[in-house]
């Protein structure tokens, strides 16, 4: 099998993998919309946003260094790095779980949200620890160019999740607590299988391991605060809307976003497949291939978003009648606004992966802060002035600024990389 066919096969496996995850998240959201109140769904969106924050922290602390650094190491050193990053994330996930329990208790003491109970915090801890384990296993498979193994891990996750959801619907109650518990248990089952399949352990201390972890930290010290900034600029919309307009409004804006997630997650799938390849191409100085793949990827991802949005808009009345249960009519005008946002996100993501391949994490961090200082205040002000539409427009302003900065910097970095290779003939990373 030639390189092109291998690349196509791996990309297809990655797309199927992400499509599966998208379908599962879509089904979970629809389950809540159909069987729970708007306020309960609004509460779930708050905790789902926090779960996405925790995954962003994991990406910065372990997954991004694993991909960016591991792709340039020998097999033995890559394994050493993987084992010690797994140990690190195990302890961090447990600490974050404890912090979340305390945070929910304090919120309950001062805010008195009727739907918020301590059981929700325990469900969140289970979901956090389980998903961290599964995501690490997936990234390890992608690093080793085994997207089919990552797909198998997520098939196991999906099977376990569906079984748990059936039990919840038939014999339990569709609440945020039970849903988070089911997600956590299913993730833990799939994650443990993926780790055992990879035959990696928690690793033993050594001089080389310490050196590798220091190199990983040199990346994480910029990506870690950067992910916090990233989350603030992209995922606080539900919390902002919930605080200003109420949980029902948070449910409306989240429902519209949910309908677009199958197409939006194609961008995530693209990143999983191409991030390690971009790192290798960057290290080899093959900027011509980087540039070509980047341009084609932008066109393809935006085209997918446009086509999918058109289908949603044309078929929304049927969705409203048979899927949404007639309670989310206000979601329709939000679809086009969200589509604009996700199209800009696709363009920005291609630039982000390129800069990550060149280890330009410090620049990504600074650009993220600039975008957040533009987008977050705009989202708050526009929510007050224009409701849920205003919140999305605020996000669009921040994302547009970030995309522009990243693309300009990415072009300069590729030119510098190309010049260095012409002069030295050696990798720059």
The gross shape turns out to be globular
Pairing-aware structural class of the strands and helices? mainly alpha
Radius of gyration: 21 Å
Low-confidence stretches: none
Structure summary, number of beta strands: 0
Number of domains: 2
Strand-and-helix sequence, N→C? HHHHHHHHHHHHH
Provide the β-strand percentage band.
under 5%
Helix content: over 70%
Described by strand count, sense and barrel closure, the largest sheet is: none
Structure overview:
By secondary structure, the protein is mainly alpha-helical. The chain folds into two domains: 220 residues, no CATH class; 185 residues, no CATH class. Helices cover 88% and strands 0% of the residues. It is built from 13 helices and no strands. Helix 1 runs parallel beside helix 5, helix 9 packs antiparallel against helix 10 and helix 10 packs antiparallel against helix 12. It is globular and about 55 Å long. The mean pLDDT is 82.
Quick summary:
With 429 residues, this protein is mostly helical. It is 88% helix and 0% strand.
Keywords:
about 425 residues; mainly alpha; 2 domains; about 0% strand
List the helices and strands and how they pair.
Layout: H1 3-35, H2 38-70, H3 75-110, H4 118-143, H5 147-171, H6 176-198, H7 207-235, H8 237-245, H9 247-283, H10 287-314, H11 316-322, H12 332-357, H13 361-424
């Amino acid at each position: 099998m030639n390189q092109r066919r291998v690349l196509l096969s791996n990309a297809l496996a990655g797309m199927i993998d992400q499509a599966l995850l998208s379908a599962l998240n879509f089904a979970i959201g629809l389950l809540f919309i159909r069987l729970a109140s708007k306020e309960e769904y609004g509460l779930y969106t708050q905790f789902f946003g926090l779960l996405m924050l925790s995954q962003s922290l994991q990406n910065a602390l372990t997954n991004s260094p694993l991909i960016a650094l591991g792709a340039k190491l020998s097999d033995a050193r890559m394994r050493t790095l993987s084992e010690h990053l797994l140990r690190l994330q195990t302890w961090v996930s447990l600490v974050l779980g404890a912090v979340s329990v305390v945070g929910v208790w304090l919120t309950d003491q001062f805010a008195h949200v009727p739907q918020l109970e301590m059981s929700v915090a325990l469900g969140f801890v289970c979901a956090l620890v389980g998903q961290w384990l599964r995501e690490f296993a997936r990234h390890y498979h992608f690093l080793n160019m085994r997207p089919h193994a990552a797909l198998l891990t997520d098939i196991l996750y999906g099977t376990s999740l569906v079984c748990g959801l059936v039990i919840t619907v038939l014999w339990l109650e569709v609440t945020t607590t039970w849903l988070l518990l089911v997600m956590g248990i299913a993730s833990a089952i799939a994650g443990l299988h993926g780790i055992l399949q990879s035959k990696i352990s928690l690793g033993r201390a050594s001089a080389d391991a310490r050196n590798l972890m220091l190199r990983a930290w040199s990346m994480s010290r910029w990506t870690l605060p950067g992910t916090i900034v990233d989350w603030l600029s992209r995922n606080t919309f539900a919390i902002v809307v919930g605080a200003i307009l109420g949980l029902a409004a948070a449910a409306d804006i989240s429902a519209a976003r949910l309908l677009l997630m199958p197409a939006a997650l194609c961008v995530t799938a693209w990143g999983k497949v191409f991030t390690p390849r971009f790192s290798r191409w960057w290290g080899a100085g093959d900027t011509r291939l980087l540039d070509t793949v980047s341009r084609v990827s932008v066109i393809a991802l935006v085209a997918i978003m446009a086509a999918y949005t058109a289908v949603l808009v044309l078929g929304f009345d049927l969705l409203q009648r048979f899927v949404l249960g007639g309670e989310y009519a206000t979601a329709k005008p939000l679809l086009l606004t969200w589509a604009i946002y996700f199209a800009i996100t696709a363009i920005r993501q291609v630039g982000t992966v390129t800069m990550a391949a060149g280890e330009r994490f410090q620049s990504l961090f600074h650009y993220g802060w600039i975008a957040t200082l533009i987008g977050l205040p705009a989202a708050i002000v526009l929510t007050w002035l224009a409701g849920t539409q205003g919140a999305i427009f605020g996000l669009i302003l921040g994302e547009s600024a970030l995309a522009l900065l990243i693309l300009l910097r990415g072009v300069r970095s590729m030119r510098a990389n190309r010049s260095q290779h012409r002069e030295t003939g050696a990798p720059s990373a």
